[in-house]
Amino acid sequence: MTAPLEAAGDVRTWTCESHGEVYGELPGAVSMIWRCPTCEAEAMRQERAFLAERRRYAWWRNDSGIPARYRSATPAHVQPLSPGAKTLASAAARYSQTLSERLDAGEGLVLLGPPGLGKTLALAAIVNAACREFRGPVYAVWPDVLAEVKAGFGGSRDDPRREAAERLRDAPLLALDELGVKGASDFDHAELFGLVDYRYRETLPTLVAANATPNNFAALVGERIADRLLESGPLIVLSGDSQRGKVALDGPDAMPPPPSEITVRTHGHGRWSERRIHAPDGRP
Question: Does 131 map to a domain?
Fold first, then answer.
């Protein structure tokens, strides 16, 4: 339905049926207003939200480092099959539900225990939850990062692999898995200290997991590193039998694909019209 044209001499105006806003050739206006300003503002808001959602999804899929096995991980997958796992499940859920407060405080987590008790699952679940809210969280396996750095030294001076650890420094949330591998060299410790110390000084939250105990964690990663990590976040110690094969990572991906386009509706020239907004990359 077309809103009636209100004319007074050469003055033309229309009224948006949705917002009741009068627009057109208004007294004192420098130029003609052809579309309802409120409709246009709402269309811009929807476009910004649509593009932001696609950026978050692209980051999660391509840049977050989440392994394919854990793309469906949520805190609900952390099963309380033992007292330690119950504490872990509670911590993962609480961190995911209060992300803004945790990140503002620079609060991390330190997960220690034998393999197979859900440490990686908990890290992935938290990073997945963070990716739904903002762009930039990163999951990384520390031995893989070191291997990439060292491989870079075998290439040219500008080999980007040399900066693998450097690229993690400013992540708004960083989850480092498999810390404390035995036989770490002085170079390995120096790389890890540089990363942890920078994030500690900048109050950037770091979540870590290690196949270690409270008694040998400092010996494995170095006392200065352990002190900074333990000061930044609570320590959760796990024990018991491996849960591998007992927890099914089923269900849809933690982040479903966003639409490839949206349609916005605006009132202009006295009638309704629709405009399609497409994703810049054109991918679904």
Answer: yes
- Beta carbons within 10 angstroms of residue 206's beta carbon: 23
Question: Domain limits at 177?
Answer: 67-237
Q: Which CATH number do you get for residue 88? A: 3.40.50.300
Burial of residue 209, with CB atoms counted within 10 A of its CB: 0-12 exposed, 13-18 middle, 19 or more buried = buried
**Number of domains comprising the chain:** 2
Buried b vs exposed e over 142-179: b needs ≥16 C-beta within 10 Å?
Answer: beebbebbbebeeeeeeeeebebbeebeebebbbbbbb
- Residue 170 in 3-state DSSP? coil
First to last CA, the chain: 33
Could you tell me which residues are beta bridge partners of residue 273?
266
Instruction: Count the residues in the chain.
Output: 284
pTM of the model: 0.85
Is the dihedral angle over the CA atoms 142, 123, 242, 69 positive or is it negative?
negative
Q: Please check whether residues 167 and 138 belong to one and the same domain.
A: yes
Tokens of 166: 């450097």
pLDDT in tens, 173-209: 999 999 988 778 888 999 999 999 999 999 999 999 9
Query: 3-class SS at 186?
Result: helix
